[in-house]
Target: D-3-phosphoglycerate dehydrogenase
Amino acid sequence: MYKVLVSDPISDMGIQQLMDASDVTVDKNTGLTEDELVAIIGEYDALLVRSQTKVTERIMSAGTRLKVIGRAGVGVDNIDLEAATQRGIIVINAPDGNTITTCEHTFAMMMALARHIPQAYAKTIGGTWDRKSFLGVELRNKTLGVLGMGRIGSEVAKRAKAFGMNILGYDPFLTEDRAAKQGVKLASVDEIIRNADFMTVHTPLTPETRHMISKPQFEVMKKGMRIINCARGGVIDELALVKAIDEGIVAGAAFDVFEAEPPAQDHPFLNHPKIIVTPHLGASTVEAQENVAIDVSEQVLHILRDEPFKNAVNMPPVAPSVMNKLQPYFGLGEKLGSFAAQITTQAVREIHVEYAGDLSEDDTQPLTRYILKGVLRRHLGSDVNIVNSMHLAKSRDVGFVVTKAPATKGFTNLISVTLKTQDGEERRVAGTLLTGYGERVVRLDQFPVDVAPDAYQLLISHNDKPGIIGRVGTLLGQNDVNIASMQVGRKVIGGEAIMILTVDKAVPKNVLIELAGLPDLNTAQEIVLE
Ligand SMILES: NC(=O)c1ccc[n+]([C@@H]2O[C@H](COP(=O)([O-])OP(=O)(O)OC[C@H]3O[C@@H](n4cnc5c(N)ncnc54)[C@H](O)[C@@H]3O)[C@@H](O)[C@H]2O)c1
Ligand SMILES: O=C(O)[C@H](O)COP(=O)(O)O
Model:
């Protein structure tokens, strides 16, 4: 008999199939502390959660029978995915079930914001008949900026058209074609910030999206903008937002999510006259809760019974024979994908992977999944893993082509990752595994290089002139950035050249700006390979 623990409030109707299963018993025990969960989790084969339960490494270590953690919803930021993967615990989610509900909540917030509904309600029930203080604005003919055009952002855009709004959309995977099909004008974040009357964010929280709207963005923002966040706390810098409202830049904000949940009693959003809030209710409808619980229960049953399943967000088991041969390349493949994604500036349309030498003889699909994960993670966040990376690429119209070449010049094995964009940009990174030396990046676009893909790299493009290496070294030294290794590549003397430096820590933004300002230096970019 399998035992399932439900530790957050999840729809009874949704988990009915689990309760009806003859080989499963379900215990509902919500609101437990970490200690309480640690004490009982050892009895269970499956854990079902929403966003309240923080599924920590400690809980998973105590869950010696745990085979699957089911998240009835989208975001898995409350689950330690790394710890789950290490322990072979499958984590699944229900990515589609709450899309419409969250989109509708976004509209509820947008309209409440435009018409001051919560503030007017509070005053009216307090006995004051105030018709002067709550002059609102129409949505019609206004420009809506949508940051993040995935499932929810796309549904928001669709409905905004019915309100007569003009929509500007930004998403690293949004191409002109796709935007046009959705009736959206493809725009940059900067264009949205400068032109939108309303802006709504629908991205995951990743290192890239964290505080993507902060002081510098508020400084150039269209005056009177109204901002909605029903995605994740932290995408918009809360303190900078309050300041922008108080300075009259932002007219108001509606937030369903917070950097820390629940927010502290003295959080500046609470009781601010121009900010309206809800307690992470985006997914809280009868329909969505049933949908996500049904989806997740079905998958949990499959996993417990060793049947095929979908929507796994962490690593599935790989056959040992395949693992032995390919495993040493997994880390390299992911880093090459990530490297290529970081140097590509436009939306990726096609990923071309070429395996040459030894690798061309094997079924390299598991390795391709790691490469795709490396490419996609930069924009889609921690939900991308080797189980879902191919599916995610397809669902975003990103084609991937794998070719094999039997021999390579000088290497026993070579993996090349080329990213192509809609505007014809093409970036290529190739790497190999050298016996005794480990992972190496050996080609960057047309330049031969020889670099260990360590955590922090600095990629500099420059004109091949004397003195430039010295100037770069001096500037980094002055800013306490230690150089571990340096590689210079060029095709012709005096022509276009690149420099790759491995450094011991993250390079501060101001140093990157100073570097880019050096004579004969064209661009300076940090590449993080963690
Ligand atoms: N408030 C709630 O209760 C609630 C409910 C459901 C989902 N969510 C959250 O809403 C968000 C969106 O969910 P979804 O189902 O649409 O996810 P999704 O994965 O379908 O879409 C997210 C999109 O964000 C894009 N993105 C990533 N980095 C970006 C960047 N720097 N700039 C612009 N776009 C970027 C991705 O390319 C992707 O298309 C997630 O954070 C999810 O956890 C909140
Ligand atoms: O990521 C999600 O699915 C939403 O944030 C909903 O979270 P909840 O299930 O805790 O309401």
